[in-house]
Design a protein that fits this description.
The structure is a single chain. Helices cover 40% and strands 21% of the residues. With 169 residues, it is an alpha+beta fold. It folds into two domains: 90 residues, no CATH class; 34 residues, no CATH class.
Length: 169
């Protein structure tokens, strides 16, 4: 055999081997669909009614994503809400096709974001602790008392601070 013939056979063999392995390995690369859904929350007087609509729309999205693409291995949806000029993430759903086939209830796969109800105006933020409020009150005299006559620093400040969670910086 000539050198050109051997080289041709080696190239054909390498290509065949590579294409064959690619065909074998391709099912391991299942597709993943990531989406951000944004809904209008201005028509919802309560968080509960908003959650109902959000879950219904997300459930439909996940079902359609798996139905339209048999190669779809996983779906991830971040549900965002626009309300009162604010946009905030409400929840995240991440589910694989086998998990969804086994349990297609959305609630099983939902992860809620903390603080969304405050950002969207459904709940008022927690008020600051009395220790913080008293420490920030201004004094009108030199005797260490505030405008309303309360001491600027409560006598049990160390006790209050010891029970308080640490502040994030």
């Amino acid at each position: 055999m000539s050198l050109i013939n051997i080289r041709s056979w080696l190239i054909i063999g390498a290509l065949s081997l590579g294409l064959g392995m690619g065909a074998i390995a391709s099912p391991a690369f299942a597709q993943s669909d990531r989406a951000n859904l944004v809904i209008d929350g201005s028509n919802h007087p309560t968080l509960e009614s908003l959650l109902q609509q959000a879950k219904t729309q997300t459930q439909t999205f996940v079902e359609q994503a798996f139905a339209k693409n048999p190669e779809q291995g996983e779906v991830q949806v971040t549900l965002m809400v626009e309300r009162n000029g604010q946009v905030a993430p409400l929840f995240l759903v991440r589910v694989s096709r086998p998990d969804w086939q086994q349990n297609p209830r959305l609630e099983q796969w939902v992860q809620y974001f903390n603080g969304s109800e405050v950002l969207l105006g459904f709940r008022t933020p927690p008020s600051s602790s009395p220790a913080v409020a008293q420490r920030t009150t201004r004094s009108n005299s030199d005797d260490g008392r505030s405008f309303d006559g309360l001491p600027l620093v409560p006598p049990n400040l160390n006790e209050i601070l010891a029970k308080s969670p640490p502040l994030l910086h």
